[in-house]
């Protein structure tokens, strides 16, 4: 067209291709083998891409050079990869790499390994959940919580407008909490620590195989502190919302409405947290790019690494901050009846329910995890389809139909694989960091990834322009982030089991304070007494439906009001605290030791690859010996070949391999093959 966008078709001559191949140290064959080389045209995403396929026999002394033109390379990807009907099959990572390049090929290879290895923890997590379902009726603390005959009256949840309430009113919450807070959860948390180590080792082995097969050998902190402050301010704002709404909705005179105030406040607070996380994630992505551009990195690789670090730091803080608050801060600084901690002068800090904060942590984790995945997959990743539909409407309005290159140009531009990695790494954090509170997290992640792979495949094949192929030797800084998350998950799960769940207090009671070695009486033991006459003026319930209350109970280990040191921490409190700290140390050291043992037992390089590398080195030495002997044989006749002792060659694949004892002879380059080969 005279005006507007123009398209130019370029042809690259063979000498230039040969020179670039030499500069990139691309391997060529040195044995007389039959090879298949596929050279695809650089046409963007279309369903019929011409490919030049060369069958080369005797790569060094070329005798046959046959050219076959094939069509439908991308169509094959669409049928065998970007299709929900083939979710049960492995991904064609070699085809993905040949068409999209090594960078995208490595991403989908990593995603496939991660998804495949999610199957064992998904099955085991589901078994842990079923164990909780089948044993909940035999759980003594849940039975005692639901027993109306115990007639346990709890202290009000807020000052003035909140009434006393019966412990049996949280029966369903206690039973639900046991589904995720039972003895099997601890074993599952230890298993997940081992699983994380196995996953990293398995990916290292897989990456080494891909390196060999694909021939891959090659902050402004003050502003970040401001973003961290914004994140925690949002978490604090949601906490203040829950505190205020608890007081406001407790003014409702309807008894049924008052009974459901806690659940209503918790649910709306979790939904609000999820929306804040989604909004801030988009904002932080743009801020990370802006901050990285201000630093003016010297190279593209340096720019990407700094951008990835900032994006992950901000987005992970945004995603995990609400969960960290519920797991480790909620209810820890609330105080006690008669001496509560207040915010803004009149509002009490929120407390955990008598069964603990684990069930709320479980709900918070599942809502944010599932909400992010569903909304991102179904809203943010559907922009390309909408734009494609608009382009089709515009084409109908025009008289002349568009050419394929016009259609390809109107597709969404490729924005890199960083957003794809980021989504999966954040999900890996959800799966590993707090799996002790939500054993079903691996199962939900597995279900999401099975769909995510095909969704991303369809996006790459049909919705975005074909990206430039980028060679890279591994997944880069993402592996270091995975290692950091895996190590940090051991610490978080140890603290979740010790300080958030009721596992340690139950064990302490059973083996130190129980009369008969059972859990009978645990609920009574875990609740402290408060004399209602000790309420400060204006904090006792204004009206009450429960008459004759002289003592109310609250969740803590404190001396009763008739003790000499009333309301101080009891001996049981210090015993439980010591047991919690001891369990953290034991769990952390055990998990770290087992992880290191697994890493030591599993070699980074598979035996099959090690043997293949030795075989290739032997073939190279044989070729070099033959090349050295040919000139001597022509002038002096044949001689007996001397053995060549192989040097200590690193098992890591490299672009070039040499034997210094033989004169540093290298395999023939593609240009030499072309010059010395009859067609």
Automatic annotation (TrEMBL):
Start and end residues of each Anoctamin transmembrane domain: 96-217, 224-616
The answer to whether UniProt assigns keyword Transferase to this entry is no
Gene Ontology annotations for the cellular component aspect, listed alphabetically? plasma membrane
Database matches in Pfam families: Anoctamin (PF04547)
Q: Which GO terms describe its molecular function?
A: intracellularly calcium-gated chloride channel activity
In the bilayer, the protein is annotated as:
Multi-pass membrane protein
Q: Where in the cell is it found?
A: Membrane
**Regions that span the bilayer:** 61-77, 107-134, 183-200, 221-250, 270-291, 312-329, 425-447, 581-602
Q: Does the keyword Transmembrane helix apply?
A: yes
Q: State the UniProt keywords alphabetically.
A: Membrane, Transmembrane, Transmembrane helix
Database matches in InterPro entries? Anoctamin (IPR007632), Anoctamin_TM (IPR049452)
Domain of life (superkingdom): Eukaryota
Q: PANTHER family annotated for this entry?
A: ANOCTAMIN, ANOCTAMIN-2
Question: Which family, according to UniProt?
Answer: Belongs to the anoctamin family.
Q: What is this protein called?
A: Anoctamin
Species of origin:
Scophthalmus maximus
């Amino acid at each position: 067209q005279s005006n507007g966008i123009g398209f130019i078709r370029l042809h690259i001559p063979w000498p230039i291709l040969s020179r670039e191949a030499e500069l990139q140290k691309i391997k060529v064959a040195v044995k007389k083998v039959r090879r298949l080389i596929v050279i695809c045209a650089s046409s963007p995403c279309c369903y019929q891409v011409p490919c030049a396929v060369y069958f080369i026999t005797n790569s060094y002394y070329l005798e046959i050079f046959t050219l076959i033109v094939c069509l439908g390379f991308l169509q094959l990807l669409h049928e065998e990869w970007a299709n929900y009907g083939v979710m049960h099959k492995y991904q064609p990572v070699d085809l993905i790499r040949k068409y999209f390049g090594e960078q995208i090929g490595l991403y989908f290879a990593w995603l496939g390994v991660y998804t495949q290895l999610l199957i064992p923890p998904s099955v085991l997590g589901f078994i842990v959940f079923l164990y909780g379902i089948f044993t909940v009726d035999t759980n003594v603390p849940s039975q005692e919580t639901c027993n109306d005959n115990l007639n346990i009256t709890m202290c009000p949840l807020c000052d003035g407008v909140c009434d006393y309430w019966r412990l049996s009113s949280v029966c369903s919450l206690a039973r639900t909490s046991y589904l995720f807070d039972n003895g099997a959860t601890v074993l599952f948390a230890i298993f997940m620590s081992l699983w994380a180590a196995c996953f990293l080792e398995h990916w290292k082995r897989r990456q080494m195989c891909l390196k060999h097969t694909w021939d891959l050998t090659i902050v402004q902190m003050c502003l970040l502190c401001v973003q961290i402050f914004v994140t925690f301010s949002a978490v604090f704002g949601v906490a203040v919302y829950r505190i205020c709404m608890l007081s406001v909705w407790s003014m409702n005179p309807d008894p049924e409405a008052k009974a459901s105030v806690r659940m209503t406040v918790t649910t709306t607070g979790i939904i609000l947290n999820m929306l804040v996380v989604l909004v801030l994630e988009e904002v932080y992505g743009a801020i990370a790019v802006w901050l990285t551009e201000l630093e003016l990195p010297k190279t593209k690789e340096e720019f990407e690494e700094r951008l990835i670090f900032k994006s992950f730091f901000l987005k992970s803080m945004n995603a995990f901050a609400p969960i960290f608050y519920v797991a480790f801060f909620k209810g820890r600084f609330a105080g006690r009846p008669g001496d509560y901690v207040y915010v803004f002068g009149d509002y009490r800090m929120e407390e955990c329910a008598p069964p603990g904060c684990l069930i709320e942590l479980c709900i918070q984790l599942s809502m944010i995890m599932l909400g992010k995945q569903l909304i991102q997959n179904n809203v943010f990743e559907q922009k390309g389809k909408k734009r494609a539909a608009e382009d089709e409407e515009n084409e109908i309005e025009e008289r002349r139909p568009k050419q394929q290159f016009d259609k390809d140009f109107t597709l969404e531009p490729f924005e890199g694989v960083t957003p794809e990695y980021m989504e999966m790494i954040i999900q890996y954090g959800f799966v590993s960091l707090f799996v002790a509170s939500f054993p079903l997290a691996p199962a939900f992640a597995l279900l999401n990834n099975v769909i995510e792979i095909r969704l991303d495949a369809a996006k790459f094949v049909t919705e975005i322009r074909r990206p430039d192929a980028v060679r890279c030797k591994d997944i880069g800084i993402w592996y270091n982030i995975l290692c950091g998350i895996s190590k940090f998950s051991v610490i978080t799960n140890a603290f979740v089991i010790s300080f958030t769940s009721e596992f340690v207090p139950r064990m302490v009671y059973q083996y130190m304070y129980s009369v008969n070695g059972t859990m009978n009486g645990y609920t009574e033991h875990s609740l402290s007494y408060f004399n209602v006459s000790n309420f400060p003026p204006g904090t006792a319930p204004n009206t009450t439906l429960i008459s004759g209350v002289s003592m109310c109970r609250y969740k803590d280990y404190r001396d009763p009001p008739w003790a000499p040191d009333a309301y101080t921490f009891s001996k049981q409190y210090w015993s439980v605290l010591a047991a919690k700290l001891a369990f953290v140390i034991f769990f952390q050291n055990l998990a770290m030791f087992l992880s290191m043992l697994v890493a030591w037992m599993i070699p980074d390089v598979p035996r099959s690859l090690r043997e293949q590398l030795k075989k290739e080195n032997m073939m190279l030495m044989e070729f070099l010996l033959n090349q050295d002997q040919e000139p001597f044989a022509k002038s002096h006749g044949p001689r007996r070949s001397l053995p060549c002792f192989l040097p200590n060659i690193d098992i890591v694949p490299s672009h070039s391999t040499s034997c210094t004892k033989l004169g540093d002879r290298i395999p023939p380059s593609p240009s030499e093959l072309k010059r010395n080969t009859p067609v």
